[in-house]
Amino acid sequence: MSKKKDESETEKEEARIGVFVCRCGINIAGVVSCPDVVDFSKNLDGVVVAEEYLSYCTEGGAREIKDAIEKHNLDRVVIAACTPKTHQPVFQAVLEDAGIPPRMLEFVNIREHDSFVHMHEKSVATEKANELVSAAVARAKLLEDVPTEIVDINSSVLVVGGGIAGLTAAIDLANQPEIEQVVLVEKKNTIGGRMAQLDRTFPTDDCSI
Ligand SMILES: Cc1cc2nc3c(=O)[nH]c(=O)nc-3n(C[C@H](O)[C@H](O)[C@H](O)COP(=O)(O)OP(=O)(O)OC[C@H]3O[C@@H](n4cnc5c(N)ncnc54)[C@H](O)[C@@H]3O)c2cc1C
Ligand code: SF4
Fold it and tell me: For residue 192, which atom of ligand 1 is closest to its CA?
């Protein structure tokens, strides 16, 4: 057995993972049995603590996670909640506040990928949540921190295409303090691209304009 394998196995044994199952009011808890997912999680290898809470993306929720990190000396966190697209940065900030590198977060979506799509099959939804959490815990054990390196960049940026992707990229870039200038080029005489041709959009039903 190689030395590298020995080291990774030691890391695995030492992982101290906390699992936090968000009820999201009734959005998740109305379908998935959160207490069952918590009980299931407690028996997974590497899991030191598993808890559930009404809404982890609130001040109270962040405090619950930070208290558990401190109390149980956690070094990895699994959040079972909604979409990482919007909420992963929220919980990465919570980890950072608690002194854990943000990359030690594993995020699993038991709302859009589970309670929303299996709302009429509650036991199946709970089983799926267990499987998603189990996979997230297995992956969390292998997580390693990747330190962030700051590098010099070109401070003028050209964005080609004024659709939603180009507009969002241009705004995000313009809000970065290190970017001096953003030039947005659109070949048509109006911006907005495909989105500007739509009325209301899935999933939020927002007016697309
Ligand atoms: C019927 C329909 C319904 C949809 N419903 C939804 C929905 O409900 N919810 C949802 O989230 N999404 C929906 N979508 C998808 C969504 O509209 C698209 O994913 C999104 O608009 C794509 O944005 P984009 O910026 O990537 O591309 P585009 O909107 O295609 O924008 C690209 C822009 O780049 C410009 N461009 C291209 N080449 C050049 C060039 N060489 N130089 C300069 N400019 C250039 C184009 O003129 C255009 O303005 C729907 C799409 C369709 C067609
Ligand atoms: S973290 Fe996500 S799942 Fe939990 S309450 Fe907030 S929005 Fe809902």
Answer: 49
